[in-house]
């Protein structure tokens, strides 16, 4: 039962964080294309890992911008979500999208040749 609630909170927090990131005024975050790929909230709702993916911009600067905006983001989440406790956010870069694109590029570069049919003369 608790896992189901935790999953719902993760999904709702992911939606809210995606909307809040568009409102962040820090130019390191607002000028970059940042996507929230997942959220993992601890069972006691004290901490949350926010997985994000960066498509444009300097990754180190974006990480600094997210860290400095964490207080504002937490305040907005507290206003928008009805939770007893608003978690502290830890932002973790998620490389799975770029890794998937890299694998896709490799796979599209593979040339598959048709096997030659063997004729036995029968």
Key words describing this protein structure:
single chain; 122 residues; alpha+beta; three-stranded mixed beta sheet; 48% helix; elongated
Helix content: 40-55%
**Alpha-beta classification:** alpha+beta
**Number of extended strands:** 3
What is the topology, as strand order, of the major beta sheet? 1-2-3
Which value, in Å, is the CA radius of gyration?
Answer: 21 Å
Average of pLDDT: 87
Largest sheet geometry: 3 strands, mixed
Q: What is the global morphology?
A: elongated
* Uncertain parts: none
Gap between N and C termini, in Å? 67 Å
The topology string of helices and strands comes to HHEEHHEH
Number of helices: 5
In terms of DSSP E residues, the strand content is: 15-25%
Describe the structure concisely:
By secondary structure, the protein is an alpha+beta fold. It has helices at residues 2-21, 27-30, 59-68, 70-80, 96-108, and strands spanning 33-41, 47-56, 88-93.
In terms of topology, how is this protein built?
Blueprint: H1 2-21, H2 27-30, E1 33-41, E2 47-56, H3 59-68, H4 70-80, E3 88-93, H5 96-108
Parallel strand pairs: 2-3
Antiparallel strand pairs: 1-2
Could you characterize what this model shows?
This protein has 122 residues and is α+β, with helices and mostly antiparallel strands. A 3-stranded mixed β-sheet has the order 1-2-3, with helices on both faces. The relative contact order is 0.16. The model has no long low-confidence stretch (mean pLDDT 87).
């Amino acid at each position: 039962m608790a896992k189901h609630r935790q999953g719902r909170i993760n999904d709702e927090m992911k939606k809210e964080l995606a909307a809040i990131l568009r409102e962040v005024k820090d130019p390191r975050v607002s000028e970059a294309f940042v996507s929230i790929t997942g959220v993992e909230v601890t069972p006691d709702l004290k901490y949350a890992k926010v997985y994000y993916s960066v498509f444009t911009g300097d990754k180190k600067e974006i990480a600094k911008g997210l860290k400095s905006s964490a207080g504002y983001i937490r305040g907005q989440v507290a206003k928008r979500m009805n939770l007893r406790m608003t978690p502290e956010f830890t932002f973790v870069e998620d490389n799975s999208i770029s890794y998937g694109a890299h694998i896709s590029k490799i796979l599209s570069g593979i040339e598959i040749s048709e096997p030659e049919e063997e004729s036995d003369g029968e």
